[in-house]
Amino acid sequence: MKKTLISTTMKTAIAATLSLLVAQALGLRFSSSAGIITILDIFETRKATIKGGLKRSLSATIALVLGILVFEIFDYKTWAFGLYLLLFVPISFLLKIELGLGPSSVVVTHLLSYGEINSSIIFNELGLIFIGTGFAMLTNLYAPESQDELKKWIENIDGDIKDILIFFGDTLVNNLDVKIYEGKIKKLEDDINKALDLAIIENDNRIENSKNLMIGLSHREREMDLLMEMYDDLKSIPKEFADGKLISDLMIDTANNLSDNGDIIKVKKRIEFLQEHFHMMELPETHEDFIIQSSIFQVFRSLNQFIDISKIISNIPRN
């Protein structure tokens, strides 16, 4: 966050100053407006800056044409500027270029100050628009890539997912409290959200989109949801449960083979076999036994989905 703030501050200060200097060097009147337009047109990512700059350029051009028509027809009076706004505001919203309302109207106030219109005035205002927008776009032509940082995040996330699965397996055979890992799950959730935010910015900053990283993180987000579901189910299975070792081994094997398509398929077959085994067992006699058996089936279901998602992740092309 701090790094992004410093980068945006530096880019804004440099670009606005350069646009003002260029406008002054070209002898344009109201040259400070070029700097203001640059400031308003700088966004966090390359994609947003280009999109916003194009919208504001279109907005300013339409505003200029509309302002000229209104002032030429109704004279260069203050009330005519109000009429211009009555026309321009709804047009902006209809064309979805309303973010240009402010800077575009500033350009139109220049016409009011001139009190007349000629070709040099038009070129002056168009120059301010394109210099301001142009420097804003230039600021994000270079955007440092975050691929290495993102891959590090993903590596840590995968490690945490594996650790949590192994710990869950251990709770079924050892005297461990599954609640110990509440903080670990919360950290995993926070890390995935932070990585997704970074992936969105990275995707918008690259000329070639980086969607595969976002897709992979979205699938890991689903894996985290399954871990939370397993967390709730495991709390209902007592440590002394007779078949706890079987389920424990499955969870640990799943964790250790998530990146190995061949072995994970074998684990999946074992899960399906055990599911069938538990289906053939006698119906539970007590409410407590019913809750335990229901939780076991839910764990099997979650593990199956976990494996399916891991197979999808392993088949996503790497950038």
UniProtKB/TrEMBL annotation:
<keyword id="KW-1133">Transmembrane helix</keyword>
<feature type="transmembrane region" description="Helical">
    <location>
        <begin position="81"/>
        <end position="101"/>
    </location>
</feature>
<dbReference type="InterPro" id="IPR021062">
    <property type="entry name" value="ArAE_1_C"/>
</dbReference>
<feature type="transmembrane region" description="Helical">
    <location>
        <begin position="57"/>
        <end position="74"/>
    </location>
</feature>
<feature type="domain" description="Putative aromatic acid exporter C-terminal">
    <location>
        <begin position="148"/>
        <end position="310"/>
    </location>
</feature>
<keyword id="KW-0472">Membrane</keyword>
<keyword id="KW-1003">Cell membrane</keyword>
<keyword id="KW-0812">Transmembrane</keyword>
<dbReference type="Pfam" id="PF11728">
    <property type="entry name" value="ArAE_1_C"/>
</dbReference>
<dbReference type="InterPro" id="IPR038323">
    <property type="entry name" value="ArAE_1_C_sf"/>
</dbReference>
<dbReference type="Pfam" id="PF06081">
    <property type="entry name" value="ArAE_1"/>
</dbReference>
<protein>
    <submittedName>
        <fullName>Aromatic acid exporter family protein</fullName>
    </submittedName>
</protein>
<dbReference type="InterPro" id="IPR052984">
    <property type="entry name" value="UPF0421"/>
</dbReference>
<dbReference type="InterPro" id="IPR010343">
    <property type="entry name" value="ArAE_1"/>
</dbReference>
<feature type="transmembrane region" description="Helical">
    <location>
        <begin position="121"/>
        <end position="143"/>
    </location>
</feature>
